[in-house]
Amino acid sequence: MPRTISSTPRGSRTPGRVSLSWVIAVFGASFALVACIILGAAWVLGGRAAPTTPTVTELLPPEPRQSPNVTADSEVATVSALHAPAGTDEEYLVGEAAAILPGALKSTEVKELPVDRISDLKPLGWAVPYLDREGFQHDYVETSSVESVRTIQVRLTDGTSFINVAETRPEAEKVELYPLHEKLHSVVNLDAVTAETLELTTGQEATLYREEEAETWTTAVETSSVQYVITSSLPHHRASEITSWVMITDRSRVQLAPNVPGPADRLERGFDEIFGWFAD
Predict the structure, then answer these.
(1) 172: exposed, middle or buried (Cβ count in 10 Å: 0-12, 13-18, 19+)
(2) Alpha-carbon Rg of the chain, whole angstroms?
């Protein structure tokens, strides 16, 4: 009996198998496309819904209405006189110098920040809100900015002694800080004090300025990105300790600062918004 020869070439697939493979390939490609579209939408929506970090200016309280009889210059002098550097006399409060915080080269308006909002400075990269010392509390916070250089000064007090810390940082890229010794005239009478170099526990050097038998002292220390001027009524032999504490806080602020949102946070915000559409 003769053998029947199949008309299907050897090695070829049956139509059923070809169709199944094609369906699987199309399904996989469609699934990948949809997944990419969803991820892309979540990325875009997550960026749009990202929480915005306030600037120092946005933390300032609303400007009060000015009296017609009050000029801008007199208002600036009044604000500065309320929180003038310790140890200054009435003569210091007259003229442009009264409106200069440590770190500024020229006169500018000094504004007070609400103490209860000092924590809002943490995500902005400032160290002063992290200053915490047993028995001391933040008494006031004030700030000024000129030519994209901002100074924030805080006063901590235990009811008897005080510590003033002025932190100066650039507010924009490619802005360089002027050398600190060029700006100390606003808080230190350099002709009436002695200067002494202090070795800090951080390995940095600071300069101590003090007048014989004066109740206050001032230290100044700077890095390439920040400058600190510290004035205190604590005994002067504690100047190195207090200044080291400030610089240690400056180094620690990066570890202590709130986590910066990353790509995963952005996608999470986007998925939350997408799921919210279906929930509604």
Answers:
(1) exposed
(2) 31
Q: How far apart are CA 219 and CA 195, in angstroms?
A: 9
The structure's pTM equals 0.64
Which tens digit of pLDDT belongs to each residue from 140-171? 999 998 888 999 999 999 999 999 999 999 98
DSSP tally for the chain: helices H, then strands E: 5, 8
Residues 6+ apart with CB under 8 A from 109: 72, 76, 79, 99, 144
Q: Model confidence over 224-249: pLDDT tens digits? A: 899 999 999 999 999 999 999 999 99
Dihedral through CA 166, CA 171, CA 173, CA 177, nearest 10? -30
**Distance from the first to the final alpha carbon of the chain:** 75
**Which tokens in the block code for residue 212?**
């014989």
82-124 tens-digit pLDDT: 234 444 443 333 233 345 788 888 778 888 889 988 888 888 8
Show the tokens assigned to 104. Answer: 């500024």
